[in-house]
Amino acid sequence: MTQRTPVLVDCDTGIDDAMALLFLLASDGVEIVGVTSVFGNNTAAQCAINSLRVLELAGRTDIPVAIGAEKPLVGEVTYLATHVHGSDGLGDAGLPVDVAAQPSTKTAVEFIDELAERYAGELRILAIGPLTNLAHALDQIPGLVGKVRDVVIMGGAADAPGNQSPAAEANIIHDPEAAQRVISAGWETTLVPLDVTMREILTEDHRDRLAVAGVPAASFVAAATDFYFGHYGMDSFGRRSSACHDALAAGVLTGEVVPLSAPVIDVVVDCTDGPGRGATICDTRGRYRNFTGTSGGNCRVVLETDGTFPDVLVRRLVGAV
Ligand code: BDR
Ligand code: CA
Questions:
Q1: pLDDT tens sequence across 38-88
Q2: Mean pLDDT computed over 138-153
Q3: Ligand 1 site, residue 196, Cβ cutoff 6 A
Q4: Per DSSP, what are the bridge partners of residue 148?
Q5: Atom number in ligand 1 closest to CA 12
Q6: Structural domain containing residue 230
Q7: What is the mean pLDDT of residues 166-178?
């Protein structure tokens, strides 16, 4: 038997976080060894319950879920994205609210510490919410950077517009100071920004295939994305559809999304109080020479993918691959 790669998912479980969890749970090469929650799409407490609801749907009540930060490093929470993910955070799609398993009694940081020790050198982290838990973990766990194999982040916008402000993407603007701490920590980091997540689009055709498969996880995603499509409306892509942000980052982590362009470049997060707050300033000047000769960056930034991930996602969720 091939050994599966241990993955910790740090998330603010909304609709696309749920897609990411379900995608990884159905993927052969990886094992979700724990989930930590953070405020963002909803409160960290609700996001932990949402993770448990999704895990229960997949029959994985054995995976521990720990509650993390309810507020950013600096200031207070400015909004929770219930307008994007529904009042329950999962598209109000009827997923049972009562869960068999309860959140861990450990905090997210305590749980990250435990997993980093247990899987030292092997642990991969998929960070698909605000980066507050990881920033706290970096400050509180000695030697954490050396114990983690890599961190894959859904967040930011390199050369694309933001989605929460003209310059900033939601996960980063929720806690820019934390994002800066995590991206500059010195561990191997991959950023999966809006440049690519807004170009890998779920459509009604994908929803139809999910809905008729007779697979609980697929039926749930079909139901939840009805709300998600409603949020994106016709404006984003000219048809009822949505991005699948966090799931795309999961595909990058498993290696099933092979970027067409993903240079290692310098990324700095704007932590000022001006209109650029939360922007990920990515040094993409290497575009002018096809990124040849770029060196010394702190982050691998996925700039281009081929648009086929939603199909892979659907096939994985219906059990076809
Ligand atoms: C990110 O923000 C959240 O609403 C999504 O779950 C995703 O992680 C996209 O900007
Ligand atoms: Ca998320």
A1: 999 999 999 999 999 999 999 999 999 999 999 999 999 998 888 888 899
A2: 98
A3: no
A4: 123
A5: 6
A6: 5-317
A7: 98
Q: Is the CB of 16 under 6 A from ligand 1?
A: yes
Summarize the confidence of residues 162-187 as an average pLDDT: 98
Catalytic residues, which ones?
Answer: 12, 245
Q: Which of 303, 300, 294, 246 is nearest to 11 (CA)?
A: 246
- Residue-wise pLDDT tens digits, 292-317: 877 789 999 999 999 999 999 999 99
User: Which residue is listed with tokens 């969890």?
Assistant: 21
- Domains in the chain, number: 1
**For 229, phi and psi rounded to 5 degrees?**
-60, -35
Does residue 1 carry a pLDDT above 60? no
CA angle 124/314/211 to nearest 5° reads 130
Ligand 1: which atom is nearest the Cα of residue 84? 4
- Cβ atoms within 10 A of the Cβ of 317, count? 26
* Domain CATH for 95: 3.90.245.10
Q: Give, to the nearest 10 degrees, the angle between helix 44-57 and helix 15-25.
A: 40
**What does the pLDDT read at residue 176?**
98
* Pocket lining: 195 vs ligand 1, CB cutoff 6 Å: no
Distance from CA of residue 96 to its chain's centroid?
Answer: 23
Q: Which residues in the chain belong to E strands, given as ranges? A: 5-11, 30-37, 65-67, 123-127, 148-154, 189-192, 201-203, 241-243, 264-265, 267-269, 280-282, 299-301
Compute the distance from residue 288 Cα to the ligand 2 centre, in Å: 32
Ligand 1 touching residue 10 (CB < 6 A): no
Q: Which ligand 1 atom lies nearest to the CA of residue 14?
A: 6
